[in-house]
């Protein structure tokens, strides 16, 4: 495959920061997942997936339990998923996924975050065609060769297996997410550093230092929005 998910460093930084903002976003996502079916991960696949992701960010059990109890309590907060697409400096492309109970507010906030930081929001489909949906699963304690052998033994077809940021990263089709995790657990993996469904850029752009600074300010502004859950982009990370 040859391409890398360029959010690994950002993801690890968010995990290390353990910010209340990250926890609040997960609280909302867990609530929505629990409301989408039974508030029990054993029978609710969507909720089970969100909880697996929450573990990789060390989301406290109290926040998880509070969100699930809120869903059980019949609270009627109606959130909808929205995807926004836009452009940053020098050909950079951005996808913003949100959960919102006020679409007009969120669209306005996202548009402002783009506009105030040298970017502009595009129409639906403006950049998504330049990204591929992918499952990204990262763990430690195994070599690339061992990981490939393990996945082949389980007859799991993956896009790529690479060593990145001192861990093994498996890239697979989104539908293979649970199969890859199950195979890893069977092989003795007890903790996942990354467990995401992401959008992987088909190609990357490299920005000048000034453009890079402006781009990072734009991404920070987008991620700071309460309704924004994920931000994906095609800017190459600095090594």
Model description:
- InterPro entries: Integrase-like_N, TACO1_YebC-like_2nd/3rd_dom, TACO1_YebC_N, Transcrip_reg_TACO1-like, Transcrip_reg_TACO1-like_dom3, YebC-like.
- Residues 3-74 form the TACO1/YebC-like N-terminal domain.
- This is Probable transcriptional regulatory protein SAMN05421737_105257.
- Belongs to the TACO1 family.
- By secondary structure, this protein is an alpha+beta fold.
- It has helices spanning 8-17, 20-35, 45-56, 61-72, 103-115, 144-153, 177-186, 209-223, and strands spanning 80-87, 93-100, 120-121, 131-139, 160-164, 167-172, 194-201, 228-233.
- Helix 2 (20-35) runs parallel beside helix 4 and helix 5 runs antiparallel to helix 8.
Provide the fold topology:
Elements: H1 8-17, H2 20-35, H3 45-56, H4 61-72, E1 80-87, E2 93-100, H5 103-115, E3 120-121, E4 131-139, H6 144-153, E5 160-164, E6 167-172, H7 177-186, E7 194-201, H8 209-223, E8 228-233
Short description:
The chain has 239 residues and is of the alpha+beta class.
What percent of residues are in strands?
Answer: 15-25%
By DSSP (H or I, 4+ residues per run), the number of helices equals 8
Based on the structure given, which CATH architecture of the largest domain is correct?
2-Layer Sandwich
CATH T-level fold name of the largest domain: Alpha-Beta Plaits
Question: Structural class of the helix and strand makeup?
Answer: alpha+beta
Helical content stands at 40-55%
- Average pLDDT works out at 89
Number of strands: 8
Give the biggest sheet. Answer: 4 strands, antiparallel
Alpha-carbon distance between the two ends? 20 Å
Q: What is the CATH homologous superfamily assignment of the largest domain?
A: YebC, transcriptional regulation domain
H/E series: HHHHEEHEEHEEHEHE
**CATH class category name of the largest domain:** Alpha Beta
Pick out the low-confidence regions.
none
What is the rounded Rg? Answer: 18 Å
Principal-axes shape call = globular
GO biological process, one term: regulation of DNA-templated transcription
Protein name: Probable transcriptional regulatory protein SAMN05421737_105257
InterPro entries: Integrase-like_N, TACO1_YebC-like_2nd/3rd_dom, TACO1_YebC_N, Transcrip_reg_TACO1-like, Transcrip_reg_TACO1-like_dom3, YebC-like
Pfam family, one: TACO1_YebC_N
């Amino acid at each position: 495959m040859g391409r890398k998910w360029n959010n690994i460093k950002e993801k690890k930084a968010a995990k290390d920061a353990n910010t209340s903002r990250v926890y609040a976003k997960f609280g909302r996502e867990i609530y929505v997942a629990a409301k989408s079916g039974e508030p029990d991960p054993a029978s609710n696949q969507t909720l089970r997936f969100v909880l697996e992701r929450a573990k990789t960010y060390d989301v406290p059990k109290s926040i998880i339990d509070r969100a699930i109890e809120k869903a059980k309590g019949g609270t009627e907060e109606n959130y909808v998923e929205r995807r926004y697409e836009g452009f940053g400096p020098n050909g950079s492309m951005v996808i913003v996924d949100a959960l919102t109970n006020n679409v007009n507010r969120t669209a306005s906030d996202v548009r402002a975050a783009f506009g105030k930081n040298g970017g502009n929001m595009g129409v639906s489909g403006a950049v998504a065609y330049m990204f591929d949906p992918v499952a990204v699963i990262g763990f430690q304690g195994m070599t690339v060769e061992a990981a490939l052998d393990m996945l082949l033994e389980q007859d799991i077809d993956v896009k790529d297996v690479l060593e990145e940021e001192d861990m093994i990263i498996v890239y697979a089709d989104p539908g293979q997410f649970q199969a890859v995790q199950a195979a890893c657990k069977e092989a003795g993996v007890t903790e996942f550093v990354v467990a995401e469904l992401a959008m992987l850029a088909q190609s990357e752009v490299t920005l000048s230092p000034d453009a890079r600074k402006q781009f990072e300010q734009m991404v920070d502004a987008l991620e700071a929005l309460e309704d924004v859950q994920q931000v994906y982009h095609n800017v190459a990370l600095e090594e």
